[in-house]
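Figure caption, in words: inputs first, then the predicted bound structure.
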Amino acid sequence: MKTDFFFQINNRLHYGIGKSRELNTLIEADGWKNIALLVDEGVAKHSAYYLEIKKIIEGAAESVTEIQLRGSEEPSYDYLDNVADQARAINQVDAVIAIGGGSALDIAKAVAGLITNPGPGLKYRGFDQLTVPAVPSVCIPTTAGTGSEVTINAVFTDKSEMKKLGINGRYLNATYAVLDALWLESCPHDVAVSAGMDAMVHTLESFMTGNANPMTRASNREAFVTLYKNLPALINAPKDLDAKQAILMGAYLAAAGLFNSGSGISGALSYPLGVHYKVPHGIGGGIFIASVIEYNVQKGWFEYAELLDLIEPHTDWTAEQKSKRFAEVIRELSNTMGVPKTLCQWGVTAENVEAVAELMVPLQGAFNQNPIEFIAETDALEMLRHHVA
Ligand SMILES: [Fe+2]
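Bound structure (fe (ii) ion present):
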């Protein structure tokens, strides 16, 4: 763990069931007159809560321009530019308010930056490329998992290269986040499960990374316990609003840890699988996470004992015994959540697994974050082989 580090959260959090009903006070306090309201089209069309909150926003601002975002797991730079142009056409946007899933929030954060920084989104790909502060933004997630509302990352697909590469860093944070479980009521079950597993993968990977520090570890521990206790409710008690609110907290803390420490093997593997095979991001990570933990424990990394202690104290066990049990715990959780064991249903099979493994070669940088050496050409292929049959 690093003892010399930098840690940041550039976000003001408003947290609570029904908290969105207080958006008017936020708008009035900051004196926003013209608002670009970016909303996931599914939410705009089907959520009664959205109509209620939209009225509150309209009551507090002078003008509100709604831009509906089409639902997509993989927003492209072309689509980002399309939305940015719509927002730039609005006269003097004071703030962007975004309501939607992780992709919608990613678009909104980037659009807030593109309103003040000219040119196409691709120009700002990478880290700290935005040179002018973004207009203020409010990110309100309608799924609990990605944590986009707290990170300084927004992921887009460059269609010409079939790669996911984001706009990251300075000015790419949401000014405010509102975590309010009433939005999750309209979230489809499979999306909720994928997003929830995404959050669990975030906190576990952040915990493992070589850049972990006391601040990220504090976020990781709280996120892990919160998610571990509440994720099963998505399966066993899907109407449990308190559990959903807790999952929002877990996802926020998990992402706060992750963007400060960097990601690891599971998240990295899931990116090309999402782009080329349409594997949902959270499920992709969820398929690999238990295997990654088993791999690390087998090779002698036993820091998972610290996480097991939080949920299952075994005072006389060694760190090795606890870490082995932890791998089982995560395997059991994946099963409870209905995470598939293989990638076969998305067309990744024993026949094409070697070609799929080729896609992983450029990810060696992310693999290097793992506490145990993991080689793209050999270990990634081996890992994929375990998940095709
Ligand atoms: Fe993720």
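The two ends are 36 Å apart (CA to CA).
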